[in-house]
Amino acid sequence: RYCAPYDFDFVCGVKARWAGRRLCDLFASEFPMRPKEYYVKAHAMGRLCAREHEDGPMLAGGNRVRHFIHRHEPPVMADEVRVLTVNDDVVSVWKPATVPVHPTGQYRRNTVLALLAASRRDLGRLFPIHRLDKNVSGLLLLARSSEAANEMRVKMEAREMRKEYVARVRGAFNDGDATPVSNVESLGFDSKGRVAIWRGKKGVTDLDERTLKSFKDASTKFTCIKTLVDGTSLVRCEPFTGRSHQIRAHLAMLGYPIANDVAYGGALVEVERARAIQHACDVTVLNEAGELVKDESLAIDYSAPRKSREQSSDLCPHCPRIVHAGDQAIDLEAIWLHCVRYSGEGWEFECPMPDWA
User: Fold this and answer.
1) Mean pLDDT for the chain?
2) Using one digit for the tens of pLDDT, what is the confidence trace for 84-106?
3) Which terminus of the chain has a lower count of CB atoms within 10 Å, N or C?
4) Residue 151, domain member (yes or no)
5) Based on the domain organization, do 67 and 86 belong to the same domain?
6) Rounded CA gap, 231 and 335, in Å?
7) pLDDT band at 203 (very low <50, low <70, confident <90, very high)
8) Nearest 5°: phi and psi at 127?
9) Domain final residue, candidates 158, 188, 217
10) Is 55 within 8 Å of 93 (Cβ atoms)?
11) Is 84 inside a domain boundary?
12) Which reaction does it catalyse (predicted)?
């Protein structure tokens, strides 16, 4: 699914760590998907500005930065965001993998919230109650008011909710070895703030202060559902805490990474890649009116040559094509991790199992 390209006015306050830096240098390092030459030219044209278009003075706290850009969002798979149940307070949906929940990074319209706003306007404004990673599928709970969202989050933080996922992991999962190890170390992140690591991991001896401070207790219970003929296993995962990448990191640490999760020891599955290529001939576009339309004329031929730098616009490397020039196959990879159930005292929401399970 592709979005029709659109103009977007990005506005943000200067963060503490940005203070004392020049505007173009800052954007070139913080948003490296474009070269510094682009930011210099955009600044000269008034499309990138702070302090009345001056790039000489250093940025300071309290400044506001604006960047008026022409955006081509990366694509997502065209699987439908399925509404499962609706009541006065909560909407439960089946989130497809590869689709972010809310605006993040380069995604604003190819998100669960934007797609529901286009296809189910009767639901009104929705508020995510919990996180679900972009490449993870399954049950997502959305509140119909900020008050309902806060009430559900309080219950979640008090651990009054039970969560259940299913994963397909590499190897024959051994219940006897793994189930007792429910409190599987504390999780932290490396110095780049991206890759989850765990205290006591082999080879990790020198940790900087920032990494040490990032460690938090994380607990997950695993139960083998069945072992499959291809040497993988279906595993029920019950996280008692909600740390980023918790299930993925814990399974990798136990020696049973999610089979197609390349970030944590898995490998790409050619069947999944073939499915993505097959779907490329069926393109759904979210147009300027916020409506979902199909247009086969926009289908992308990835065998066609890319535009040269001379053919590209100085301010948009993607035009005149709708395709995002930075597309990578890995961005459309779904991992075999699926949220199945959320429950509490007197209530329960469920999502059907995925095809790979």
Assistant:
1) 79
2) 999 999 999 999 999 999 998 88
3) C
4) yes
5) no
6) 17
7) very low
8) -125, 115
9) 158
10) no
11) yes
12) a uridine in RNA = a pseudouridine in RNA
Whether residue 84 sits in one domain with residue 61: no
Name the residue with tokens 């490296």.
32
Catalytic residue among 25, 89, 133, 190: 133
In a domain, 207, yes or no: no
133 is catalytic: yes
Overall domain count for the chain:
2
Range of the domain at 55: 2-71
**Pairing of the two strands 137-143 and 127-128:** antiparallel
Kindly state the tokens that stand for 267.
């490998």
The DSSP-derived string for 220-231 is EEEEEEEE-TTS
Within this chain, do residues 56 and 110 fall inside the same structural domain, yes or no?
Answer: no
pLDDT in tens, 148-196: 999 998 988 888 889 999 999 999 997 654 443 444 555 665 544 444 5
Could you please report the per-residue DSSP string of 238-262? EESS--TTHHHHHHHHHT--BTT-G
- Decide if pLDDT at 278 tops 80: no
Which of 15, 37, 71 is a domain's end point?
Answer: 71
Tell me, what CATH number does 39's domain have?
3.10.290.10
Q: Residue 197: is its pLDDT beyond 80?
A: no
